[in-house]
Amino acid sequence: MKHFQWRIALLSALSEFQVTRAGEIAKALGPVITTLEEIAPLLADEEGRALEVIRELGTAFRCLCDWAAARRSAEANAVRYLDAAKEHASAAAKQLAQVAFPALRDAVGPVTEAIAATTETSSLPDIARLLSCVPVPPFLILCENPFGKPTEAKEATPSSPVIELPFVVRVMLTLDGRPWANPQMLRAGTVYDLKAKITAPAWPSGSDRLVLDFISTLPPEHRRVSLIEVFRSHADSEAEIAWSGHIEFPVGQSVLAEPALLQMRANFLSAADATFAKTATIIGYHKLRVRVSDPKATPLLSKFRMLDQRLVAIVDEVRDLPGLGQEHLGDFIELLSAILNYMGICAQQALYRAGSKILEKDFQRDLLVHLRGQLGEDVQEAPKLGGGITDIRYRSVIAELKVEKDIADREEMLQAYQNQPTQYSGATGAQLGILCVLDLTEKTLPPAPPQNNVQLLTPTLHGFGGTQPPFPVRIAAVVIDGNIRKPSDYSR
User: Fold this and answer.
1) Model pLDDT for residues 395-406, shown as the tens digit of each residue
2) Do residues 346 and 352 lie in contact, with contact meaning Cβ atoms separated by under 8 Å?
3) What digits encode the pLDDT tens for the residues 149-179?
4) CA–CA distance from 427 to each of 384, 398, 400 (Å)?
């Protein structure tokens, strides 16, 4: 792997990350980490320390991928990979104080914290997104041949031919002021502000402008993206060039469809020579994944942006389960979307406030009314199934409701309740179910953003010795914070 290509390989693995492909991505990261180890002796001390932090993070994420792959194959000691990932993340955090690049330090902190807090593989896409946003300072390696071993610098003679190195462009994108997420959730027929920060460390001789465009499998009439064009005169005065434009997708996608992919291309051009063109490698947002939702055609999502991203991540994890039917998956998405919509409302309105006496039957009544308003007559209350009485059933999917007043720890709480919806789901042959818990425990600290309380559980099933059966089961767990105190109660 060439010295400049490790960044491309790393970003490619992160931008295309899916939990179902964790094993493949772990293998792809192996050469990246090896290359980082080879480059380290060639750098100055400050750059070497920065590279070591990046290597530790890359190794940590590779361990997380190994952990996800091991869990999917039901390895008995898969947690050892998670422990290794946290050790490497801890090592990266300890070395940050010696790193002289402030932007790198600021971006690495959230990554190490997210890895330290990881308990479920559903958090890996968010970690991949955070890691892909870590800015890498330019590392300069003195060599005669940029693809060979380092040598002593030689003075250029007038007769020596001019050899231009491969050109690299760094692109960072924001959508309506927020960093682009992969996949990004957008609404059909809506014009969004798209902004870019572009860094071109070197321009080819004779070029005067840089043009970035997109290619995609989507028909041209289904995407409208402003042409990104910046001029060399702008780069003379500042290293980073700001650009503003718009993006719109007129046609929506099915929620079951794969995200659309936009591949970004970069070319240096010249106004003086129409035939002049130099291709550049893009570091950063070179592949954009986007889901386009049309509320009129597919009114299935929660209508809360961050919760929709968690919903999409869960759908991506379960869509490839062996034996899973599309109709059952569609029912699951609709019911989970409606429950997440209620979760968003509870978070915004603080519906279950401190001091209110809420019984499980009250919670079930409130959620039932909301779900029927969202999904209509197919929402059933308390049908008998599998030797017990379920709480809510929507077509082929069961939602089990609980009220928790004692256990605040999420892992302990969900482990205590996950088996009941698993049995109800199994009684109908369903592979997907939902557990919804109203957390009424004492809130001595402010609640976390609600997207932290949406997880995908893999229950252990009888008779399979800890391994996954041919037709596995997944339970989406939603914890709604109740017993909410006033914000001023947390002030001293």
Assistant:
1) 999 999 999 999
2) yes
3) 444 444 444 444 444 557 888 888 999 988 8
4) 11, 10, 14
pLDDT at 14 over 60: yes
Burial class (CB in 10 A: 0-12, 13-18, 19+), 366: middle
Give every CB contact of residue 355 below 8 A, 6+ residues apart in sequence: none
- pTM of the predicted protein model: 0.52
For tokens 């818990």, the residue is 437
User: What CA–CA distance (Å, rounded) separates 207 from 276?
Assistant: 8
Q: Identify the pLDDT of residue 165.
A: 59
326-328-333 Cα angle (round to 5) = 90
Residue 245 has pLDDT above 90, yes or no: yes
Task: Give the per-residue pLDDT at 1.
Answer: 42
How crowded is the C-beta side of 196, counted as CA atoms within 13 Å? 26
The DSSP annotation for 317-374 comes to: HHTT-TT--HHHHHHHHHHHHHHHHHHHHHHHHT-SBTT----HHHHHHHHHHHHHHH
Q: What is the per-residue pLDDT for 434?
A: 95
The answer to whether the CB of 344 falls within 8 A of the CB of 451 is no
One-letter amino acid identity for 330? G
Nearest to 280 by CA among 290, 269, 266, 261: 266
Dump the DSSP string for 405-445.
Answer: SS---HHHHHHHHTHHHHHHHHHTT-SEEEEEEEE-S--SS
pLDDT in the model for residue 398: 92
Distance CA 81, CA 87 (A): 10
pLDDT-derived band at 455 (thresholds 50, 70, 90) equals very high
Q: What's the pLDDT band for 146 if we cut at 50, 70, 90?
A: very low
Compute the distance between CA of residue 182 and CA of residue 317 in angstroms, rounded to an integer. 15
Which tokens sit at 81? 């990979």
For 379, the 3-state DSSP assignment is strand
8 three-state secondary structure: helix
Give the mean pLDDT of 449-468: 88
What DSSP string runs through 258-284?
Answer: PPEEEEEEEEEE-SS-TT-EEEEEEEE
Three-class secondary structure assignment of 211-246: EEEEEECCCHHHCEECCEEEEHHHHHHCCEEEEEEE
Q: What's the rounded Cα separation, in Å, for the pair 327 and 72?
A: 24
The length of the chain is: 492
Residue 90: Cβ within 10 Å count: 15
- Per-residue pLDDT of 309-359, as tens digits, reads 888 889 888 887 888 888 898 899 999 999 999 999 999 999 999 888 888
User: Which residues on adjacent β-strands are paired with residue 174?
Assistant: 179, 195
